Amino acid sequence: MELLEFARGPALTFAITIFIAGIVFRIVSLFALWRTKDSSAGSPREKSAFSAALREVIRRLWPQAVYKQDTMFELVNGYVFHIGLAIIVFALAPHILFFKDLIGLSWPSLPNNVIYAVSIITMVSLIAALVMRYANPAQRIISTFDDWFSWLVTFLPVLTGIIATSHLGARYETLLGLHILSVALLLIWLPFGKLMHFFLVFVTRSQTGAHLSHRGAQL
Amino acid sequence: MSDKKTLGEMLTERGVSRRTFLKYASYTASIMALPPTAATAIAQGIANARRQSVIWLSFQECTGCTESITRAHTPSIEDLIFDFISLDYHHTLQNASGHAAEAAREAAMKENAGEYIVVVDGSVPLKDDGIYSTIAGITNLQMLEETCKDAFAVIAVGSCATFGGIPGANPNPTGAVPISDIITDKPIINISGCPPIPEAMTGVISYLLSFGSIPELDHLGRPKAFFGEAIHDRCYRRPFYERGMFAKSFDDEGARQGWCLFEVGCKGPVAYNACATLKWNGGVSFPIQSGHGCLGCSEPNFWDMGGFYKPLSTAKGDPLKWAGGAAVAGAAIGLASAAVARKKRNDILKEGN
Question: Which end of chain B is more exposed for a tag (fewer CB within 10 A), N or C?
Answer without folding.
Answer: C
